[in-house]
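SEQUENCE-TO-STRUCTURE ENTRY
===========================
What this section holds: a protein sequence and its matching fold, both as plain text.
Question of interest: how does this chain fold, as expressed in C-alpha cells?
***
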Amino acid sequence: MTDTPTQLFIGGDWADAADGATMPVDDPATGEIIAHVADAGAKDAQRAEEAAVQAQEEWARTAPRVRSEILRRAYEIIVERTDELAHLMTAEMGKPLAEARGEVAYAAEFFRWFSEEAVRIDGGHGVLPDGRNRMLLSRRPVGPCLLITPWNFPLAMGTRKIGPAIAAGCTMILKPAPQTPLSSLALAAILKEAGLPDGVLSVVTTSRAGEVCEPLLRGGRIRKLSFTGSTGVGRLLLAQSAEAVVRTSMELGGNAPFVVFEDADLDKAVDGAMVAKMRNMGEACTAANRFFVHSSVAEEFGRRLAERMGALVVGPGTRDGVDVGPLIDRTGRAKVEELVADAVERGARVLVGGRTPEGPGCFYPPTVLTDVASDSRLMDTEIFGPVAAILTFDDEDEVIRRANDTPWGLVGYVFTEGLDRALRVSERLEVGMVGVNTGLVSNPAAPFGGVKQSGLGREGGRVGLDEFLEYQYLAVPVR
C-alpha cells in the first residue's frame, strides 16, 4: 500500500487538493482506514479540465498506432502486476483475491481489445446519388471526456472507459467512486509509465462529486460524459449535461430476471445462478435479482441453490478459502437487511442465510428466499447483495410479462434446453443483453448496455469505440 499514489493526478503530475483536503479509504472487511487520498474540489476540477482541453488537439493528431501501442504496453504492465493490483482492490472494496485477480484480467483485456481497435478506425467514400458531389466520411474524437466510475469493479470500469477514449484520441478526466479511489490512481500511474502524454488523463478523487462534476458538465468544454452508476444519479447527470448538449453514455441500474423453464438442465441452471447472483458478492448491475422458476422444478432448484449458497465461505477477501467478502459499507448491508426483512414479513421462507453475523466488517451471508411475494420491495429494487429471491410461474407468456414488468432493462438470463424457446423468449425480453444457459455475459469484445432506464449507449466491443467518435462529412464536387 505504501507505493500506491494518494494524490490527484492532473496534467501528468501528482498533486494535493488545492485546499489540502483528504478523505479516508476504508477496508470493508475490518472498518479500518487503510489510506487517506486527496479530496478534490472545484479548483482541482478546473485544473484537470484545462489540462484536458489543452492536450486535446495534439492528442487527436497522434497516430493511431502510437495510441494502440500505449494501450498495449499498459495491458502488459497490468498483467505483470496482477497480484499487486488484486491485493489493492481487495483492500479497498472487499472482494476475495480470486475474484480480484479475475477482475484484473478482465480490466487488462479492455486495453488489449481497444489497442487492436485503435488502428481500425475508418470512414467512407462514395459518389452521392445526384452525381454532383463525392462524399468523404471521416471519424474524429468527440473531445475532452468526463468518465465517472463505480466502486464495485474499480479497475475494470476504469479501463472499459479509458481504453476506447485513448483509442479514439480523446482526453479524459476520470472521477472514481470515493470508496475505491486507489485502483484508479494505480491505473493512472501505469498509463504514465506506458507513455501516455501529460494531460491526456487526469484522475480526480473526491467526496464532493457535485462540486467537481456539475461545473464541468455545464461549462461546455467537456464534450462527452460516460457514467456507470445508479439510475437516480444518472438522471441528475443527464439533466446537467443537457445545458451544454454533452454527449452521454449511461450504464445504469439493473433488475435482472433469471428464468428457469421446466426443461432446463438444473445443473446448468444452478451453476449459472451461482455466477449470475454471487459474482462480486451480488454487487453487480448484472446480478440476477428475480429468479422465476417453473413450478414443476422450483422446489428442486431452490434446494440445490440453497445447498450451494450455504457452502460458500464468508470472510475477509485476503483469507485463504474465502468465497464471499464483505459488502462495500454498512449502508449497503443495511439495505440488504431491510429488503430481506420486508420479504420475510410478506411471507417469504428463508432456505439459507438471512442473518447478519456479529463482529467487525460489512458481511452478509449468501441467502436464498422462496415463496417470495410479488409485491416485496426486493422485486423492484436492485438488491446489490448475495440474496436470491425465488418466485414460481407456469406459463411462458406470464413469465415474460413479469420479467418485463420493471423500468430497468439491462440483462436477463434464460435457461432452457429448447433452442426455439431460448431464441423466442430472448427476443421478447426487454433487455440489452441475454445470457442463454449461462450466468455470465460480460466480455470486452461484446457491447455492454441496457434499454429503458438501464442506460444509453454501449461499452465494449466495436461499438464501444463509436461512443467516443464523431462523423465528419465532406462534400467534394465531381469534376
